[in-house]
Every structure is written in C-alpha cells, then in structure tokens.
Amino acid sequence: MPADMDDSIYANIFDATPEPVMVHHPETGRILDANQAACELVGRDCEQLVGATVGEISTAGFTTEEAVAAIRRAADDGDHHVAWEVVGPEGQQRSVEVTLERLDVDGTVRVVAFIREPADGRERDRDRIQWSEQVRTMVNNLPVVVFALDADGTFTHSAGKGLSALGLEQGELTGASIFDVYADYPEIIDAAEEALAGDEVRVTQSVEDLVFETWYQPVFEAGEVAQVVGVARNITELKRREERVDALSEATNDLLYTHTEAAVAERVTEIAERVIDRPIAAMWAYDGDDTVLYPVGATETAIEFAGVDIPKDLPDMEPGSDEMAIFDAGEPAVIEDYTELDAPSAPGVPLGTLLCLPLDDHGLLCVGSTTVEPFDESERHLLDILSSTATAALDRVARETELNDQRAELAASNEALQRRRDQMEFFNSILRHDILNGMNVIRARGDMLASELDGDHGAYAETIVEWSDDIVDLTRKVRSVLQTLSDEASAETKPVELAPVVESAARRAASMTPGATVDVSVHSDVAVTADDLLHDVFGNILTNAVEHGSTSPASKARQDAGEHGSTDSNDPDSESSVAVEVTSTVTEETVTVRIADDGPGIAPDVRDRIFERGGKSTDSGGTGFGLYFVDAMIASYGGQIRVEESDKGGAAFVVELPKA
C-alpha cells in the first residue's frame, strides 16, 4: 500500500471517529492534537485548539490545575476517569465523561482523552488531512482497534493495541473479508452491512468472552460509500464492573429478609465468592462475654480448604491474634501473605492474600485467595459496600432479637399476672367459703351456747366445752386465712437469702413433731428471686414432710389409700422417728432445693393432683389450700415445683427458683 494511501486511512480513522479525542502533554496538560469531533465539541478550529489549556474551554468549575492533576494521574497509573463541564460553540455548557489513557510512542509519553457525549444524530463528514508519522504511530499504540473496510467489506487496515486481546497482530486482518472472519457473529455482520449501506453505527458487540464498544463511520466519495472506518474499544472490564455492581445490588437486597446472624453470614459469604470472585470467604461473630470471635458462616471452598466439615469447626479468633487486632482497631486491613503473620488464628493454613473487614461490634468478614493476589480498587469498593450492608443487616437482626426477647418477657409477665389474678380469685373464694361459713358457725354456736347457759349447766357441760373448742379452732382458722390473704396481696419479689429462710422453716417444722429431725445442707451464699412469703412456702412443704415422713405401719396404709398421710393421734407408732433431708444445687440461672422424707411417699397417680384445688385432704384441720398456695407462690416467683420419689422410698419435693 502506498504511503499516501496509508496516511489517508489514518486521517480518515482519526477524524471519522464519532467521539471527540484529544492528545495532551503529560506534564503541562496542554492539547497537542484533537480530531474534528473534539473541535466541534468546543466550537474552535483545530489550529486554535492545539496548544490551548483545558481551563480555556471549560466552565469556571473546572480549572486547568484540576485537568493537569487528572492528566498526570493517568500518566502515572495508566488510566483515569473524570467528569468534565465543557463550554460549547454557542457558549452552552455540556456535561461529558472523559477517559484518560497513557500512551507510549517511541519512548515519548502522551495522554489521550476519549470524550463521550450524547449523540446528536448528525453525520459528520471528515476532511482528509495529512497524517504525520507520529500520529500514525500513536494510533498503532492506542488501546483500541482501528480498522477500515472497502466498499465490499474487505479489511484495508487494522491497527491498535486492542488487537492483542483478540490474539491478532497489527495488519493481520488486512485483505480478509469481515463477512468471513466474523461469520459466527451476527451482530458484527449486521453492523458492517448497515455501515456499508451508508449509516453511521454505534453498537456494543461481543467476541468470545470480550465486549467491545464499536463505531462504524461510512466515508463517501461522489455520493457513494467508498469505505467504512471504525474504532472498537475493549470495554470488557468496564462491563464486568457494571455486572458486579448490579449483582451486588441484587444480592444484598436479599439481606433485608434475613432474620438470624447465621443467615446473614451465609448470604454475605456467598455474595463475596460470587461477586468478588474470591474463593475464600468466611465470617466470624463477636462474643462479648468471652471476648472471642467465633465462626458463623463460610463458603464451601473455605470449609474444604481448612479441612473441616462445617463453618463452626473453623478456629476461633482469640485475643492476641492478628485478626482480633484488626477487629479491635475497627478498620479494614489487607493481609498480603497470611503465612507471614506472627500470630494468625489458623497457623499452618497456607492462605495467600486476605482482606479483613470489621462489621462494627458484630464481628469480622474475611475474603481472600489461596495465593498472593492483591485486591484492586474495584474489588475493595465492592467489598466496602458488602461489609456496610452486612453491618446494617446485623444491626437489624440484633434489634429484632431484642424486640422478640422483650415480647417474650412481656408474655411471661402477662402470664405471671394472670396467675396472680387466678390466685386472688381462689383466695377470694376461700375468703367467701371458709371465713364466712366459719363466722356463721361461730355465730350459731355462740347463740346456742348463750341459750344453754340460761339453764342447767351440768347436763350440758361436755357440750359447752366441745362448742367452746370449736369456737377457738374456727377463730384461729379465720385469723390464719385472713393473714395469708393479707400477706399475699402485699408481697413483692426481691432477692431473698435462701439459707436463713430454709433453716428457720426447718427448725419450726421439726419443733412441731416429737422425734423429728430435719437435716439442712443448702448453699449459704446464694439468693433467689422471691418475697417475704418464701418462709411460709418452705414452712408448708417442711411441715408436710415432717407430719407425714414416718416409717410407721400406718404410713404404709395411708400410701395404699393414695394419701400423703393424715396422722392419727391414736396410732401407737405416730411418734416414731421422722427424718427429712434438705439439699440444694446451684446453676448460673437457677437454685434447686430438694426436700426428701422417709415416709410412705405419694402414689404416682396422685402426684399430679396434689397441687390442685382440693388436691390435699383437709381432715387434719388445715385451710384446704396449703399445697395449692405453695405451687401458686413458686409460680409467681418464676419457678416450679414437682414431686418425686425420695432415695428412701418417701416423697421428695423439688423446688426450682430463679437465682437472684
């Protein structure tokens, strides 16, 4: 191909490119060259534009100093993106996006600015200009593919560093038909045919796993299409970033519907592996009590690499470890090579690069690879978004958990209040039945006694004595019921030392039965949640145990009758020895007191009923609700009571109370 023909092709390619392009000096930022589209963008002739500074064609909000800083950054890093407000030919402002690319031309560094603006649909005819060797070399080194087709679709030119991504050399396509080379790519064939028909085409096309943004510009001679020039820019990485952001956005929406810490961990590690494309991802949660980080979720790859079966088998992160130090510092940190750490949580595990992101006070997210592979800026940005979203999800889970706990506490409080109301209702029924009936009996007996005292006392002496006893007994019973109801109504729960209460109740119960012994062995340094009636609660249980914990033959008879004993004062064995043992066990939350006697015990079919109303016989003269009162009070404390068989065959009352 003659040199002048080659130059004309480059001229056509440069000026036919539908997007503005400028070439800048890497140090001063001045414009060294510009295509026709760039000149039209700012409303200047190309001769006027060359040598100008960016500030001269920008709005007041974009200075030359800012432009120079961006150009130098592109020269140092290889590329840079910036938004630009440019002044158009009529003084109007336009917002455009600029991609700055570093370009090495025979050892000389230049920065090329690719400017994108909304298309105005106009077809631009390009003047043929003479290209210098420097411009031709520059085009060959641009990170794009520049090409030309003749009227039949045959490549007459192909250049640019973008060819290497396709596995092609400079000029390798020259002489080949685009319809043959890309026969398997219908989008490319359709775009070429449309351009050869005279239309400007701008399209995004895929070639294998690469994505190109391609412009086709027809060039006319004598009203006919003489050739088509085009520029194809590899936007594979850009599209990949966009897809990652879209995938991250879609995936993180799912975190809004997670309700447990484990569910958040599972979703977050899955997103990290899929979106960031790093095989190792795991999450640890913070245990404020033990000051350790414990594993709650990990990817399958991480689990297999660590040689464990489930995420919870991963090692904890303990105080003094490098990972715990990162968590305590509260800032993301990159571990370049995990095997070089001084105090890793998993020594001997051949991990490579690891990025650790603290999730406020919830825990730590770690994402990385099995090899030393630095994170790029895009990956860091996506992981920052992911960690922020995970933290927000964990905040919400914590709030939901706290709310559920409060609801459970409220439900328990309502249940206790209902039990209290039931107790008061029962106590009121006792008040109506026992007290009022007792008072009626007292009144009747008193009236009859007064009547009889008017006559002969001798004939009625025995009756008078019996009725007098009835009056005394009923009066005592009324006083006992009234006192119990009064105490129950005014009681409030509080921490109560257990040992003094049990020991006092034991001494009183033992003193009421000759020959009875009560051996108390309970913790002396523990308090329970109860009230001032706790003494009466244990007094009822211990008195019951002492009264009925007998080894006499009569006890066996009572057991066979399904009763927990009513003592017969005429039983010759009624004063046989009685042994009651009181012991306790303590856990972090509860205190359990076991009161065991050596009596006949309680039949299994009776144990479930003795705490119910009327579940205890009243033929001993009691109020009729002793064990019901005991069960109700223990329930109001948040505890429970049950009956078992003691080691000696008797009954064992087991009382479980909340530890204060």
Explain what the structure shows.
It is a single chain. The chain has 660 residues and is α+β, with helices and mostly antiparallel strands. It is 41% helix and 23% strand. The protein has 18 helices and 22 strands. It has helices at residues 3-16, 36-42, 46-49, 64-77, 133-141, 178-181, 186-196, 236-253, 261-276, 300-306, 322-329, 377-453, 461-490, 498-511, 534-548, 553-560, 604-607, 626-636, and strands at residues 21-24, 31-34, 79-87, 93-105, 108-116, 144-150, 155-159, 201-207, 210-221, 224-234, 280-287, 292-298, 333-335, 354-358, 363-368, 494-497, 516-521, 527-530, 578-586, 590-597, 640-645, 651-658. Strand 21 (640-645) and strand 22 form a beta hairpin. The longest helix has 77 residues, at 377-453. The chain starts with a helix and ends with a strand.
Query: Low-confidence segments, ≥5 residues, pLDDT <50?
Result: 1-5, 119-132, 551-575, 617-624
Q: Alpha-carbon distance between the termini?
A: 98 Å
Shape summary: rod-shaped
What is the residue-averaged pLDDT? 80
Question: Would you spell out the secondary-structure blueprint of this structure?
Answer:
Blueprint (H helix, E strand, L loop, with lengths): L2 H14 L4 E4 L6 E4 L1 H7 L3 H4 L14 H14 L1 E9 L5 E13 L2 E9 L16 H9 L2 E7 L4 E5 L18 H4 L4 H11 L4 E7 L2 E12 L2 E11 L1 H18 L7 H16 L3 E8 L4 E7 L1 H7 L15 H8 L3 E3 L18 E5 L4 E6 L8 H77 L7 H30 L3 E4 H14 L4 E6 L5 E4 L3 H15 L4 H8 L17 E9 L3 E8 L6 H4 L18 H11 L3 E6 L5 E8 L2
Parallel strand pairs: 17-19
Antiparallel strand pairs: 1-2, 1-5, 3-4, 4-5, 6-7, 6-10, 8-9, 9-10, 11-12, 11-15, 13-14, 14-15, 16-18, 19-20, 20-22, 21-22
